[in-house]
Amino acid sequence: MSSVLIIDDEKNIRELFSEALEDAGYDVHLAADGDSGIRAFDRHAPDVVIVDVFMPEKDGIETILEISLRKTRARIIAISGGGFSQNFQFLDMTQRLGADVMLYKPVLPDKIVACVNELIDRTG
Question: Given strand 75-80, what is the order of strands in its sheet?
Answer without folding.
Answer: 27-31, 3-7, 48-52, 75-80, 101-104
